[in-house]
Design goal:
The complex is a heterotrimer of chains A (about 270), B (about 375) and C (about 290). With about 270 residues, chain A is mainly α. Chain A is built from twelve helices and no strands. The two termini of chain A are about 40 Å apart. Chain C has a single domain (about 60-285), classed as MetI-like (MetI-like fold), CATH 1.10.3720.10. The relative contact order of chain C is 0.13. At the A-C interface, helix 1, helix 3, helix 4, helix 5 and helix 6 of A face helix 1, helix 3, helix 5, helix 6 and helix 7 of C.
């Protein structure tokens, strides 16, 4: 194939792709660099190397509170979204039925809905039902936000799964429920886990809708950073950014590594 | 904080005063009682944390950045050491946001906060958050400047819900690298409409400060405007020159420190902070207005603890240390409490304690116009 | 046990019920609310009158805001197309052994908090940010450029956020093209460019279309990016909604504004759906 490629064009493509990767990573590198800048203004050129901003960060109890809120919210909402989403995905993949196309489109609706509008609508609706802004609103909101992603991700993983094992189990006398828990679920585990992680990430990262839904005084990590952008000095936020980058990048990498080792061991 | 059985509370206090139980146990018992009476929380235990902790700790909210740092470093550690009451600190970027937080909270969740200006003092009282401070519990009140006490008393029917703590000035801040003192002095507020600094100036995102500056520019009285339409038009015109409207003191500092701007209206304390960190920022205090800051105790707070905290904060040594940290002069009377040079040279400082020549905001005018002005300014700020 | 033909509906019911309660009902509710009368004390009065719609619809300010929002979103989308397509083409056609790793790297920043990635641009584009200090350092410029707090920085932030979406969509559709078709075209005498124009490009259009729609809709609904990176000239519709609802507590107006944004985006999605299938959008999530 390479002879087909006009070399100049191909080199150009290569260069462009390289630039795109630099573009994607440059801001992140800048944040990490500036987190170690000793100056108060957090700007270039850097003045000196220091860990002082990390120290300040860990003294800040409200960030730790926000972290806890975010974590609980991410786990509970993605648990709900995964449970609901996996059932829907199974229906859409395993069965053919009337109205499937419509339902498929319907389930993907929140994907194309501006978050601001969803935020406003759910806030006003629950207020109308006399439900004050509370943890419940956040939980339900995050669930509906991540549901379409879970349905899509799980669906995609399920497509490739064959039904032979289930049929075998059934023919060996297992009933439907037994089959589901003994055969289907273990086979589906990666898909379910994938959907769960996706939902958890979305929830952990969500800011726009959360700004509408959160009870005053309760902060998730993103809304806390949003508030800090106005009241804190930037090196502190850079340090928080650096810590978040380490957590969000290193954890999945380590997790993936462990899973792969585990899979190989089998 | 409301207790199920106030008799029991009184008995506890008696026991404490007669020395039968120590302070920590008293607070622990009160805290437990508060937890029982307090709101049953959501699925997250932390939602009730603030209610439970009420009497063992007291919540203090202030402007973030250097202001919070100054209190954190100078007032709270010795207070906690002496009384055993922990200070839970919060930050806010603007008072609007804080008011909506307080409105949505349970009484007692928020206790003491730094109120900026008599307008803010007035509207917190109007919103029903006025507490009545027992002045005899704050012996240090005798050192506070009389005019500042009067200013607060006038807005709350003679009662006192806040103790005056410091004062500041909104004026014109400029980077001396690009704008000389002479130029600033000769042009005054007109600088903010100077095409030469297009794209290099900022302004406070406030329905108060913006029309105020415009009124001065047009030669009108900001608090008795003759032609409000012209004022808003001037705001529209200035918007063309502004690169960013900042909404917190920290943003203001960042914009100057990173040289995103060379000119903005701003607060004296934040300017002093910039100067102190080596930035060559000039400040023209004759343009703008002065405001009084106080430590406001919200209704429903544990009053005795709050009063003790307030007394602690206006202890001359503490107040001066905070003034040096946050760069706003204290509202202690300089004729009674000798001020060090570090305070005397703060921008906006008045050595006579009489505040002659200072223009103060009129709470009622801003309160009456707040809805109208807020809506209009919100629109203009976006180019409408 | 549920009968076989009802089983899919049974499995779907939790999803459909949550959708109905948490999405459709709330949207219907704000539709109803948009006819209510605003009361100063916050207790709005149920009514059926068009006052809110007329006030908003008759105010050129809101139309200007909508136009501005769509303009910035369109520019963002076009940039994503122009940059994203060639990149996706390279990724799909290069002979790098570990393409999964390349794609993974592209999405790595996605795992980093959106708000941190957005505010990172302040450090990059500011007057004393990375770009300016590099340019000043090597002497290309002698005064820092104004890159921050304007439309440029907003577009930059939006492109940064949406480019991977575009790339993955195009990549998936390029990857799905039967390479024999391209070989056949070459055998029949097409030049490389002709092959690309006549075969590859048309076959990858669904991916490009899906990516573009996603980019546009996400950009038009964005709130945090324009707020952090925008300046006084930035006028984004979602900011008006936020202020109406949260700051001014004017819920009837907020409802009208929300519906205005939703309807205009709905029209765009409908037009798109008329020519291309929505299902292309979802395909990329399979990756």
């Amino acid at each position: 194939m390479s002879a087909d490629r006009p070399d100049l064009g191909w080199n150009g493509l290569q260069l462009l792709t390289l630039c795109v990767y630099i573009f994607m990573f440059a801001p992140i590198i800048v944040v990490v660099l500036l987190a170690f800048n000793s100056a108060r203004t957090g700007s270039f050129p850097m003045e000196g190397f220091s860990f002082v901003w990390f120290g300040k960060l860990f003294e800040n109890a409200s960030i730790m509170d926000a972290f806890q809120t975010s974590l609980v919210l991410a786990v509970t909402s993605s648990f709900l979204a995964t449970a609901i989403g996996v059932m829907a995905a199974i229906a859409l993949i395993r069965y053919s039925f009337k109205g499937k196309a419509v339902i498929n489109n319907l389930l993907s609706l929140p994907l194309l809905m501006p978050e601001v509008v969803l935020g406003v609508a759910l806030l006003m609706f629950l207020k109308f039902l006399e439900q004050p802004r509370s943890y419940m609103l956040l939980l339900l909101g995050h669930t509906i936000l991540s549901l379409p992603y879970v349905v899509l991700v799980v669906q995609a993983r399920l497509v490739g799964m064959r039904q032979h094992y289930e049929e075998a189990a059934m023919s060996l006398g297992a009933n439907r429920l037994q089959t589901f828990f003994a055969v289907t679920l273990p086979l589906m585990a990666p898909a379910v886990l994938g959907g769960f992680l996706f939902a958890a990430t979305l929830s952990f990262d969500n800011i726009t809708a959360t700004l509408f839904w959160k009870k005053p005084g309760i902060e998730t990590v993103p809304t806390k950073i949003f508030a800090m952008l106005r009241t804190s000095i930037s090196p502190e936020i850079n340090a928080l950014g650096a810590v978040m980058i380490v957590i969000t990048v290193a954890l999945p990498l380590v997790g993936g590594f462990v899973v792969r080792r585990f899979a190989k061991g089998k | 904080m409301k207790f199920g059985d106030s008799k029991k509370y009184e008995r506890l206090l008696e026991a404490y005063e007669s020395g039968d139980i120590d302070r920590r146990s008293l607070l622990r018992i009160i805290g437990a009682a508060a937890a029982v009476v307090g709101v049953a929380g959501g699925p997250l235990g932390k939602l009730t944390k603030s209610a439970m902790a009420a009497a063992q700790s007291i919540r203090f909210d202030g402007w973030g950045g250097i202001v919070s740092e100054a209190f954190h470093n100078n007032a709270f550690p010795p207070y906690t050491e002496k009384t055993g009451v922990k200070v839970v600190e919060g930050e806010f970027g603007d008072t609007d946001e804080f008011l909506s937080l307080v409105k949505a909270s349970q009484p007692g969740e928020y206790n003491v906060f730094l109120v900026s200006g008599v307008y803010d003092y007035f509207r917190f009282c109007q919103a029903g958050f006025a507490s009545q401070i027992n002045e005899s519990n704050i012996p240090n009140l005798k050192n506070v400047l009389e005019p500042t006490l009067v200013a607060f008393r006038n807005e709350s029917e003679g009662k006192l819900s806040a103790v005056p703590f410091d004062y500041g000035v909104t004026g014109l801040a400029y980077n001396r690298k690009y704008i000389s003192d002479d130029e600033a002095k000769s042009k005054g507020v007109k600088l903010l409409w100077d095409e030469k600094y297009k794209g290099k100036m900022a302004g406070y995102d406030s329905f108060q400060t913006r029309p105020w500056m415009a009124a001065l520019y047009l030669g009108q009285d900001p608090q008795d405007p003759s032609d409000i339409k012209a004022i808003w038009d001037a705001c529209r015109k200035q918007r063309e020159l502004v690169v960013k409207y900042w909404s917190s003191g920290q943003e203001f500092i960042d914009l100057f420190a990173k040289e995103e701007i060379v000119l903005s209206d701003g607060w004296s304390g934040r300017v002093a902070s910039l100067q102190n960190s080596g930035q060559d920022i000039g400040f023209l205090s004759t343009v703008g207005f002065a405001w009084l800051e106080g430590l406001y105790v919200l209704k429903g707070s544990p009053m005795e603890e709050a009063e003790q905290l307030l007394n602690f904060c206006i202890e001359p040594k503490v107040a001066i240390a905070i003034a040096e940290g946050q760069f706003y002069p204290t509202s202690l009377d300089p004729t009674k409490v000798p001020m060090p040079d570090s305070v005397k040279k703060l921008p906006g400082y008045d050595d006579t304690g009489k505040f002659e020549g200072y223009v103060w905001e009129k709470a009622k005018f801003w309160y009456d116009h707040q809805d109208e002005f807020k809506k209009e300014w919100s629109r203009i700020s976006k180019g409408g | 046990m549920v009968r076989a033909e009802y089983r899919p509906y049974f499995l779907l019911s939790p999803a459909l019920i949550s959708l109905a309660l948490l999405l459709l009902a709330p949207v219907l509710f704000i539709f109803v609310y948009s006819f209510w009368l605003r009361a100063a004390n916050g207790q709005d009065i149920p009514a059926f009158q068009f006052g809110n719609w007329i006030t908003v619809g008759g105010d050129p300010f809101y139309w200007l805001a909508l136009r501005e929002t769509f303009k910035i979103s369109a520019i963002t989308t076009v940039i994503c197309m122009l940059v994203g397509y060639p990149t996706a083409y390279f990724l799909a056609r290069c002979r790098f052994n570990n393409k999964a790793l390349l794609l993974f790297l592209l999405f790595l920043p996605f795992w980093i908090s959106y708000i941190i990635r957005t505010f990172a641009w302040i450090n990059v584009l500011g007057k004393s940010g990375f770009v300016n200090s590099v340019l000043l350092g090597i002497g290309i410029i002698d005064k820092p450029l104004s890159l921050l707090y304007n439309d440029f920085s907003v577009i930059m932030g939006l492109v940064y956020f949406q480019l991977p979406y575009m790339i993955i969509n195009v990549y998936v559709s390029l990857d799905g093209i039967d390479r024999n078709l391209e070989s056949a075209a070459r055998t029949l005498g097409c030049t490389a460019w002709q092959t690309f124009r006549e075969v590859t490009l048309p076959l990858s259009l669904p991916g490009l279309g899906a990516g573009s729609l996603l980019c546009f809709v996400l950009a038009a609904g964005s709130f945090v990016t324009p707020r952090l990176l925008g300046g006084t000239d930035t006028l984004f519709f979602s900011q008006l909604i936020y202020e109406a609802i949260i700051s001014q507590l004017d819920w009837p107006t907020g409802s009208v504004l929300s519906l205005m944004l939703l309807l205009s985006l709905g029209i765009i999605v409908a037009v798109y759906n008329r020519f291309m299938s929505l299902s292309d959008i979802y395909r990329s999530f399979a990756k």
